[in-house]
Every structure is written in C-alpha cells, then in structure tokens.
C-alpha cells in the first residue's frame, strides 16, 4: 500500500468517524490537529476502533498519542507497525 493510498483511506475513516462533520479532503489537508477540525473525543474513539479493526493493529494509547493528531502522523505510525 502506498503512503498516499494509506493516507486517503485514513482520511475516509476520519470522515466516517466524524459522521460527515469533516470531509476526507479537509482531514488530509490538516497539518496541526484533527481536533481543530472538530473531531470530538467520541470521533477519536470511533477512528481508533475503525483503524484497529481495519488494519488489524492495536493502538497503544497509554503513552504519547500525538500520532493521532493528523492523518499523516497516523499513517506514519501505521507504517512503523508494518502496514
């Protein structure tokens, strides 16, 4: 899977997790924080669940979770895990 494909897939998951409040294009473009776009804590939980289910990974939320800030940082974190 290419980096661009992974990021596009994750951006679509952000859009779903936000129940349409955030577009995939906006999620891809955000450079600071998905929270700035309006992704709520419930939205983050939905996103975490979708990523874990869709990619067969367990996201460690006990330590630094800055990898959840942007689509790019989440994609980089997943690539580090072999996705």
TrEMBL record:
The lineage of its organism: Bacteria, Bacillati, Actinomycetota, Actinomycetes, Micromonosporales. InterPro entries: ACP-like_sf, PP-bd_ACP. Residues 1-82 form the Carrier domain. This is Carrier domain-containing protein.
